[in-house]
């Protein structure tokens, strides 16, 4: 045999090994990737953050990979490192350390552990640790949030948003934003946060983010805007929600806004509360579901049904053990070319209370304005009422907290007199759900007190 042929045959096993897919000592059949995403929450003015990332098996020092990556806010919201891992080596540990912060954008900051030039002063958050499972052939996401604090300039807001959702709600997405107290205000941070990741999965959430404690800028404004409630958990890319389904129908609450003083190197707790009214469509009507109550409402101009006198009606079913309570104001009537007229409602009311087999309570309130007090001409009627459980404490969070109320607002009369007809609760109709500050006072409070199956009872409101 010629020597050249023999050398070629001897080389075959070596070539096969080199082509087996092994890379960095990890057989291709067991190689996975740990995709490490670092999300710094920072004040403005940072051009680059230098991040050292190390990952390897918990069992020992062998098989670890260490690299340095850069976070440049103007380019990407995250710093990303892709580290190969061996699925045969069991649980892995990821270590992340922000080792430098610079005002300018850096193209290169050396390798892992290299000494850096002096950058911006900041409070070292230390080494952050995460456990991860290496899966062969899979990019496993490892997500870490790190707050970059400049000395003597920053604190934290511990934000809790309580939405009192029901079991049909499986996720909620809120957009949180913090603006500092400069003139004009400057944004500290903004983040879309979802309930299935940072809360109870039913619309409520808890989230911690920095605030600006610099002198003259310490009065920070927090806003919480509801993006939507959903009947299933939405996607998540490790940074922000990924909306994958249509939102549930509801009467959306207003954007919650409050101003809180940021305290240097301290956490400040902020609680926002808003029972959210969902739209429940039945074969007969539209109802509002919130805070354990399901309610319908209407205005009857006295031309239909067995009650011929014009009246407002509210009907609610409660899952609480105590009867619902109705807080309401007197009617206000606005007529063209005339002052606003107040029409009392508290002197003539009727209530009915029923107990159902499933343990829930049904309550109905009829509110009768004096027909002779209703003016003629081009006039619009306005009324407000709030339903709550008798034993329920109203939201006691920040002043920005709100509570649903039923609002009546429509044309009630013309030159010929009272306009006949009935208006029912609807999403955008003359009877709808609005929101008011949780501590809003009402003129009257009325508990439904008739016995089960009893006819409506007329009484004076308390």
Structural summary, described in words:
The chain is mostly beta strands and 462 residues long. The protein folds into three domains: 31-148, Immunoglobulin-like; 154-273, Immunoglobulin-like (Sandwich); 277-459, no CATH class. It has two helices and 33 strands. It has helices at residues 3-18, 195-198, and strands at 31-42, 48-57, 65-71, 79-86, 92-102, 128-132, 139-148, 154-162, 171-179, 187-194, 205-212, 219-230, 235-236, 241-242, 250-251, 256-261, 267-273, 277-281, 286-290, 293-300, 311-318, 324-328, 331-335, 341-343, 349-355, 361-367, 379-389, 402-414, 417-418, 422-424, 431-437, 444-447, 457-459. Strands 15, 18, 19, 20, 21, 25, 26, 30 and 33 form a nine-stranded antiparallel sheet that branches. Strands 22, 23, 24, 27, 28, 29, 31 and 32 form an eight-stranded antiparallel sheet that branches. The protein has a four-stranded antiparallel sheet with strand order 3-2-5-6, with no helix packed on it. It starts with a helix and ends with a strand. Mean pLDDT is 84; it is low at 1-23 and 451-462.
